[in-house]
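Board notes (copied after class):
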Amino acid sequence: MTDVTIREGEVILSAIGNAYSSLTLNSVDASGTVITLGLSAEASISLTVSDSTLSGISWGGYSNAHGTRIHARDTRFTGDGLSSFSRGACHHEVTIEECVFESGGIHVGDLSTGYSVCNGSFGRTTVRRSRFLDAGIIYGAVFGAQDNSIPGDFLAELDANRFSGAGISASLVHGFVSSTGAAALQITNNIFESGGRCLVVSWGVDNIDPSDLPADFRLDVVNNTFVGCGTGLLLTTNSHPPGLNTHTDVIANNIIKGGSVGVSINGIVDHDLSIVGNDVHGQSTGAYVGDLPDQTGFNGNISADPLFVAPATDDFRLRSSSPCIDAGFSGLEVPRTDYAGTPRPLDGNGDGVVAPDIGALEFVRLDADGDGFPAGPDCDDSDPSIHPGAVDLPGNHADENCDGNAVCDSSASWRSHGEFI
């Protein structure tokens, strides 16, 4: 049975029993509309939205429902954003691409408690190339399987997004410890501007007992740029007996500039930490705090001004003289493209060695005139006769060799210029 109701700016789509309900919206302008998806036992709902304007989407219902599938692309959310209620976050599959969230962000978890308690999979969320102008992304879940029949899991892939207010907060608890559980957060190529705590990840285990089955947690925070955050990255883990869980954390190739604290880690039992190739610079309280000693000077971690092109106008590309160029960690966790879609890695410093940069944006050496010298060292990349090493010809007031002086060098002559002066 499928039931679709429309009333005064609200669309309600509900699935009952074994029903599969689907709704597709394309080029809809309804900035005051909230779409509500309701689930009951063994039901599933699919919603596809593209090239539209909505206030928000809300979904929820029975925890053992087959799940909610939402795919939004090129859509502007003017109000509530995306949120789940009751146990609707369980078994979800949400994909957001090239969307703008003006006010509300994305909240996956019971809004009343902050958590959804799921028997089995919590679900999967993918958010790419989207803008969050105020609120950010919040996850809250207790997941697992009470009878071990369904491994509890959760996966979030957040890539190439921009957060101008709040950032990302994830609180994930392996709650049914008679079962295996796994949670993975992949946070890559994002830009965080200002805000309090820009990225917060809290791992937890409830009702813990050394005889219970372990949970596996994985966190990849790679090639992001944090600017002006109160705390760039905060990672916490609740107290538990050693050996109960496994935590793999890769924090690599991030720029964390300004603010109060760069990286704060509280609770490191069972953690396999890899903190490599980061530039954490200019914090008023400390670059690394909590249970983590200062990492500056170890494993490619530096503390230097990243030299953004124009930070005052939110242009966080790297200047050609940036210490972050080709200074990053090379590993499987490094994304193959950057925030702008540029291939990564590139040979940014021209030494013939390809290596990823630190930060969300890879430095691109352009050679528009094809003279073998990229823009930067080439002071006029539109003229192939002008580049470092060229003969500086007399009498034309041009700086052919890019040495900063429009004066001919000793090798110039009437012959190379072509006429007497």
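Comment from the instructor: The mean pLDDT is 81. The helical segments are 414-417.
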